[in-house]
Specification:
The chain is mostly beta strands and about 120 residues long. It is built from no helices and 11 strands. The strands form 2 sheets. Strands 2, 4, 5, 6, 9, 10 and 11 form a 7-stranded mixed sheet that branches. A 4-stranded antiparallel sheet has the order 1-3-8-7, with no helix packed on it.
Amino acid sequence: VQLVESGGGSVQAGGSLRLSCAASGSTYIRKCMGWFRQAPGKEREGVAVLYSLGGSPDYADSVKGRFTISQDSAKNTVFLQMNSLKPEDTAMYYCAFRPGYCYLSRDLFGFWGQGTQVTVS
């Protein structure tokens, strides 16, 4: 499975960005795709994950009410709409994929994108 992210960039506090992640090479129907982030000197942490067959997304407490994860199943693509961005949201954002159910835990994901930088000033 290959994952390609896009949509990162620099924005002022309070602004918005939308990240996209396109998956290729997957034939899984039941799958989880999501977003993790890693700031300099910190561990990679879960941001949001979404199960392919529906159900409620799972969000980190720090982004609830500000970030929204969604998917286009036909295009095997997942999105992360980020509003009301804060300087503490600055990080490299990684798309992740795993067959089966969703967990907001980096150790359970085996497929990762290259990352896209988000900088909030």
